[in-house]
Structures are given as C-alpha cells and as structure tokens.
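Its record is quoted verbatim for completeness.
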Amino acid sequence: MNHWILILGMLAITFAIRFCLFAFPTLRFPPLVRQALHYVPTTVLSAIVLPGMLLPDGQHFSIALDNAYLLAGVLTIAIAALTRHLLATIAAGLSGFFLLRWLLGQLPV
C-alpha cells in the first residue's frame, strides 16, 4: 500500500508543477532560477550515467584500466567535447564501449 501512496504522491506533485506552468502563462522565473535551470539536464544525466561508469557491477567502485564502462565514458566525453556532434558522440561511444569490452574479454559468449 505504501508504494501506491508514493506513486500517487509523485504523480500529484509532477502534475501540479507542470499544470502551474500552463495555467499561469504569464508566470516568469527570476533570472537566478532561469540560470540554474540551464544546469538541470547536465545534472540529471550525470546522476544517471556516473554510477554506471564507476560501479559497473552495481556494488563496488572500479577505477581501473579494466573497467570498460569508465574508459568508454571518458572516451565519449572527449569525443563530445572535441566534436560537439551528437551522432558522432553516440556512435563513437557505443563503438568504443563494445570494442573495449571485446579487447578486455568481457563480452558474454
């Protein structure tokens, strides 16, 4: 029962926040809030990706040269910084990840 209360609470909060933006179209955020909102996508993406890179098994930190997730992540960040091209970043990141897994013998057979 607690799970349903949590889900319904999250639904109500999400709906209320989004509804307010449409119900009050003249609502304007202060410049400081607007500036802070520019960092939300980067923050959310980092919170999703970094644990996968640093905890490849989900339990133990692995900052080593045999961690294909970490190496591919660093490669992908470098490609993104150098090219600023989304498709090139995705293609290079995925290719690098699978190549590293293959070279390190970590691909499931």
In short: The helical segments are 2-23, 31-37, 40-54, 68-83, 86-103. The mean pLDDT is 92. Residues 2-23 form the longest helix (22 residues).
